[in-house]
Write a structure and sequence with these properties.
This protein is of the alpha/beta class. The chain is about 45% helix and about 20% strand. It is globular and about 45 Å long. The N terminus is likely disordered.
């Protein structure tokens, strides 16, 4: 049950964004939180998606770091992403942050019974193909927007979204970055989850594969297989690291900071130096 709880929370956060209508609520809220100068937008048909953008602090920029944030309370939250972005700005990276709602197969309202549902029930609620379609269009627009920034492109993505990206890039359906940072990739369905290792091992771009200590058992199932698959495939420029995440902010001189963003920034900085960037 303790292993199932993080998955329940993840799915509950996803269920709060049923299609574009719910997504519009989230994006409208972001528009109210940030100054217009901090936002750009992606136009997908009749939907305008805000992108939290900030230029590099350094005179000579390295490129652009794009972060896809699953709206929720675990891992790379919006707050943690903003703190990570500030550090990357200091290192010479332009940053783009997009909050992602995913398409859901069944639009039943969230209630207390979800927390006690079995894993098999949770699996059926997530629309794998539906969320791929939405993510495909968004990524193409995001990469196109980022082409205006000279330099390298780093994509940072987490959890279920990371899995979706691996699947889409495997089939050459989306642009590819110069490096991908995956944070605890998983999918709450056994068949798809087992495919993650091979998808990751066969990528043609460098991958920093970060584990979270408190994600869920789906991610734990593939942690060792991901590493072994990369070795067997003789994948160049692959690194797996474990990142501590207790989910609690700590007080600092700048207010409250996320320990996770501190860990992530150290790992990403080391990875970038390793790649010679």
């Amino acid at each position: 049950m303790r292993q199932l709880l993080p998955l329940c929370l993840a799915v509950m956060s996803l269920l709060s964004f049923e299609g574009v209508a719910r997504g519009n609520d989230v994006w409208a809220d972001i528009g109210r939180q940030f100054e217009p100068s901090q936002l750009t937008s992606l136009n997908l048909g009749n939907t305008e998606i805000p992108v939290i953008s900030h230029p590099a602090d350094a005179v000579l920029s390295r490129g652009v770091a794009m972060m896809l944030v699953d709206n929720g309370y675990q891992g790379l939250t919006l707050s943690a992403a903003l703190q990570l972005a500030r550090r990357m700005n200091e290192w010479g990276w332009h940053t783009r942050i997009v909050v992602l709602p995913l398409s859901i197969a069944h639009p039943e309202p969230v209630n207390a019974s979800i927390a006690s549902s079995s894993a098999s029930q949770l699996q059926s609620w997530v629309n794998y193909e539906g969320s791929q379609e939405q993510l495909r269009a968004l990524l193409k627009a995001l990469f196109e927007q980022s082409n205006s920034v000279h330099g390298l492109k780093v994509l940072i993505t987490q959890g279920m979204t990371a899995t979706q990206y691996l699947a889409l890039s495997k089939n050459a359906e989306v642009p590819v970055p110069d490096s991908l940072v995956t944070i605890a990739p998983y999918w709450p369905e056994q068949k798809v989850n087992q495919e993650i290792s091979d998808m990751l091992a066969n990528t043609e771009y460098p991958v920093l594969d970060l584990r979270l200590t408190r994600m869920n058992h789906w991610e734990s199932q593939t942690a060792r297989p991901r590493q072994l698959a990369a070795k067997r495939a003789l994948k160049l420029h692959y690194r797996q690291r474990t990142v501590q995440d207790n989910g609690l902010p700590v007080a600092s001189l700048d207010g409250f900071s996320s320990p996770l963003s501190n860990w992530l920034s150290k790992e990403i900085y080391g990875w970038i130096r390793y790649l010679g960037w």
